[in-house]
């Protein structure tokens, strides 16, 4: 039986493993032993008990897949080198799927400055530090920044929240209507919004911006500076990375020049929003095309399209947008919770 090795157990990788394990010998390599519903991990910072609702052990929904918890060191056209504890192991593949995702860059290594990462880290931080913090600065007014600010500000009237955003509006990649609604919502919940400001210096308990504003704070949450998790490609496939280190693919989601290596999820160089929905569509194409390559059938093209986007503003408010249509208020707020519940059913 042909072997498929999948790097990354997020939206794309987990679905690909699930879709192929009945047809191939599948191996899933992940740095953690569970799937995580990332669109709502921010909630675990303020509601740590929510963690159990968005986690599912890989072993529970992938009964036929071999699971390896480790860190990929390098990839060539035949093998994956994985570090497992303190040992390294080479794994041979017939087909490889790279779905290693992306992460936020920490602006500085300091105990009072954390990057939005995994839900477990946010949950731990809630118990250790968050409950004691009074003034919180969110760096970045994009999708993650505004959702995080809303998650904090809506239930915690005692905390002072500040957003620092470099552009002239929040949600600069979204419509003007979405930006204005978000700004009004956050300001109504006593969030201070500083636009056209960049963090220039970070010191303990204070930030200095490019306009020399001094902001004292107890905690800084960075929601800017996404980097793809592609370091393991540098040795053998550096020419397949774009300037930002995202992986270049062809129209069938194959690594350029490699018909037996596929790429899916946030790691891909395609100019589209890094959404769970897009990762799902990538997964469907990759599942079909690995089968097609195996059976010498024509491959299916991936077409990037606008997707319905739901932005949560706390538990009970939000924004739904699709092309030129925008719906705001309680319905999108509840819809995101419904999407979470429905999606997690696949992993139960």
Topology:
Layout: E1 3-7, H1 11-20, E2 25-30, E3 34-36, H2 43-46, E4 55-57, H3 58-61, E5 66-69, E6 71-75, E7 79-84, E8 87-92, E9 95-98, E10 102-104, E11 113-115, H4 119-128, E12 135-139, H5 143-153, E13 160-164, H6 176-188, E14 191-194, E15 199-203, E16 206-209, E17 214-216, E18 219-222, E19 226-228, H7 234-237, E20 261-263, H8 276-294, E21 309-312, E22 318-322, E23 325-329, H9 330-344
Parallel strand pairs: 1-2, 1-9, 2-5, 9-20, 11-18, 12-13, 12-18, 13-14
Antiparallel strand pairs: 3-4, 6-7, 7-8, 10-19, 15-16, 16-17, 21-22, 22-23
Helix pairs in contact: 1-8
Question: Gist?
Answer:
With 348 residues, the protein is an alpha/beta fold. The chain has helices at residues 11-20, 43-46, 58-61, 119-128, 143-153, 176-188, 234-237, 276-294, 330-344, and strands spanning 3-7, 25-30, 34-36, 55-57, 66-69, 71-75, 79-84, 87-92, 95-98, 102-104, 113-115, 135-139, 160-164, 191-194, 199-203, 206-209, 214-216, 219-222, 226-228, 261-263, 309-312, 318-322, 325-329.
How far from one another are the termini?
27 Å
Shape: globular
Q: Which residues sit in consecutive blocks of at least 5 with pLDDT less than 50?
A: 106-117
Residues in helices, as a percent range:
25-40%
Radius of gyration of CA atoms, rounded to a whole number: 21 Å
Biggest pleated-sheet summary:
5 strands, parallel
Rounded average pLDDT? 90
Number of H/I helices: 9
Q: Give the neighbour order of strands across the main sheet.
A: 5-2-1-9-20
Total strand count, please? 23
Strand content: 25-35%
Task: Output the structural class.
Answer: alpha/beta
């Amino acid at each position: 039986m042909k072997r498929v090795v999948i790097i990354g157990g997020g939206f794309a990788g987990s679905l690909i493993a699930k879709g192929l394990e009945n047809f191939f010998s599948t191996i899933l390599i992940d740095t953690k032993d569970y799937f995580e519903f990332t669109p709502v991990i921010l909630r675990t910072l303020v509601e740590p008990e929510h963690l159990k609702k968005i986690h599912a052990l890989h072993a529970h929904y992938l009964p036929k897949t071999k699971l390896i918890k480790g860190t990929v060191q390098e990839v060539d056209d035949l093998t994956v080198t994985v570090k497992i504890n303190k040992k390294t192991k080479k794994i041979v593949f017939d087909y490889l799927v790279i779905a290693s995702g992306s992460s936020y860059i920490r602006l500085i290594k300091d105990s009072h400055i954390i990057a939005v990462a995994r839900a477990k880290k946010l949950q731990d931080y809630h118990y250790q530090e968050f409950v004691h913090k009074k003034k919180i600065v969110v760096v970045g007014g994009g999708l993650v920044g505004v959702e995080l600010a809303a998650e904090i500000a809506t239930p915690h009237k005692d905390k002072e929240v500040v957003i620092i955003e470099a552009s002239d509006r929040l949600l600069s990649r979204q419509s003007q209507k979405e930006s204005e609604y978000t700004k009004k919502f956050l300001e109504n919940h006593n969030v201070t919004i500083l636009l056209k400001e960049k963090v220039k210096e970070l010191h303990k308990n204070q930030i200095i911006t490019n306009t020399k504003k001094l902001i004292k704070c107890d905690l800084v949450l960075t929601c800017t500076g996404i980097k793809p998790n592609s370091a393991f490609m540098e040795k053998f496939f550096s020419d397949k990375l774009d300037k930002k280190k995202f992986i270049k693919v062809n129209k069938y989601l194959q690594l350029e020049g490699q018909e037996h290596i596929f790429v899916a999820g946030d790691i891909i160089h395609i100019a589209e929003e890094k959404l769970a929905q897009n990762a799902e569509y990538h997964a469907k194409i990759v599942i079909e095309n690995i089968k097609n390559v195996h059976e010498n059938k024509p491959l299916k093209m991936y077409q990037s399209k606008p997707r319905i986007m739901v932005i949560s503003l706390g538990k009970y408010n939000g924004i739904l947008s699709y092309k030129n249509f925008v719906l705001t208020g309680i319905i999108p707020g509840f819809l995101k919770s419904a999407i979470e519940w429905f999606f997690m059913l696949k992993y139960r």
